[in-house]
Structure formats: C-alpha cells, structure tokens
Backbone:
C-alpha cells in the first residue's frame, strides 16, 4: 500500500467513524487528513452517501485546492479545511460536522465556557465562537472566507490546545494531530456542548470552572508535565 493509499484509508475510516459516533446526519459532515511531506490533502468527496463510500473514492487535492489523483470531486468545505492546514502547523486532520449540541451553541453565537473537567481535560479554556461572515465575504469565496474567519478568531489562541471552534450561525470545526484525532475532538466537542447546555438549564448563571482546576486538568494530560495515561499521546 502506498503512503497515499494509507492516507485515503485513514480518512475513509475517519469519515465512517463520524457516522458511528452519530456526529453527522445525512451527508452533513466531512473529515480530511494531510501528508505534509507531500503537500497532499485527502478529504471526503462531495455529496456522496457514507454507505456507498470506498477508500479509493476519497478526493485528493494539493494545498491550493487543485484536484490530483483522479478521485471524486472533493467536499464543498475543502477550502475551509485547507485554510486550517495552511495556518495551523501541527494539525494533521480536520473535521466538520453539524453535531446537534455544538451546533446549538454555534447558532446562538455563544462560546462554550469551561464548566467542568470533561471540558478541561481536552480543551484549554472556552471553545471559541467566530463572528458572522460579512455579506461581502459570503458572496465571495465563501468556504475559504469561513477558514479565514476561524484563523482570525484564533489570533492569540493556541489551536493545538483548543482544537475546535464554533462558526457563528453554522456549526463546529475541529482538528487534531491526524484524522482520527480530529474525529475524537469533534466527539469531545459535542459531549462538552451537551453537558454545558444541560448545566445552563439547571443554572443559567453558572460561572466557569475555577482557572486553577481548568489548568490542572488540562496540564495533567497535555504538555511536558502530563502524567495521565501510559506515557503516550492517547487522549482518553
Ligand atoms: Zn456545515
């Protein structure tokens, strides 16, 4: 199996995992992965049912979005994925879903504050929300502008410590070291949104978890002082 075939297989599995985890409805979602040494991105083809998807049909593009490799036409969200790859070094996989609870926060243009350790274990600080795109941005290169909007929101933030975002009025994007990691982070983001929504229902005035508890939970799993788990980079 070539390196490209291996990446296609990995991205194929990541897309099916989105279905298994119930993070996508219909065809509303996509996962991609990048081989930075070759400058190629593999992504779900546009509008194809997950049921009939095969690894060989995965679309292949370069970082400028040019189709290579003879697969199917890439997802319409490809330009957003590419902006994230170009700007966030260290990201090897990107996922977009309309998972219900995270999308509820996106539609309300509300960030998800860190209310508990489930959140703190995986995301450092609040999951941010972008501004709305302007009319000119929407009439222009919409998907690329969505990517630029995400990059703009991460000015001053570390995308590897906060591996996801809510695009206002739209839905979440998440990313990770590789495609499966990005899927994992999209699942965590959905769970964190669900927990936060329920917590707000019980106590609309709830304050974020104290910063020293947030820091403790994040740092015991990430960075040089991490001690949780078996000494590898697994995140569970
Ligand atoms: Zn979408």
Residues:
């Amino acid at each position: 199996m070539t390196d490209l075939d291996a990446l296609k297989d990995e991205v194929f599995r990541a897309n099916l995992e989105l279905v298994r985890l119930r993070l996508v409805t219909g065809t509303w979602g996509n996962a991609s992965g990048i081989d930075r040494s070759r400058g190629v991105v593999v992504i779900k083809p546009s509008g194809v049912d997950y049921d009939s998807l095969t690894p060989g049909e995965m679309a292949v593009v370069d970082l400028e979005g040019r189709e290579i490799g003879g697969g199917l036409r890439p997802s319409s969200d490809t330009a957003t994925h590419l902006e994230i790859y170009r700007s966030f070094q260290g990201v090897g996989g990107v996922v977009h879903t309309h998972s219900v609870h995270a999308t509820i926060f996106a539609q309300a243009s509300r960030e998800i504050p860190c209310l508990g350790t489930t959140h703190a274990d995986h995301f450092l600080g609040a999951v941010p929300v972008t501004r709305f795109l302007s009319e000119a941005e929407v009439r222009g290169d919409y998907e690329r502008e969505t990517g630029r909007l995400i990059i703009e929101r991460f000015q001053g933030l570390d995308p590897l410590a906060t591996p996801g975002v809510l695009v206002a009025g739209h839905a979440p994007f998440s990313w990770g070291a590789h495609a499966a990691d990005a899927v994992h982070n999209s699942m965590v983001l959905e769970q964190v949104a669900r927990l936060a929504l329920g917590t707000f229902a019980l106590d609309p005035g709830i304050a974020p978890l104290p910063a020293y508890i947030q820091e403790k939970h994040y740092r015991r799993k990430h960075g040089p002082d991490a001690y949780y788990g078996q000494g590898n980079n697994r995140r569970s």
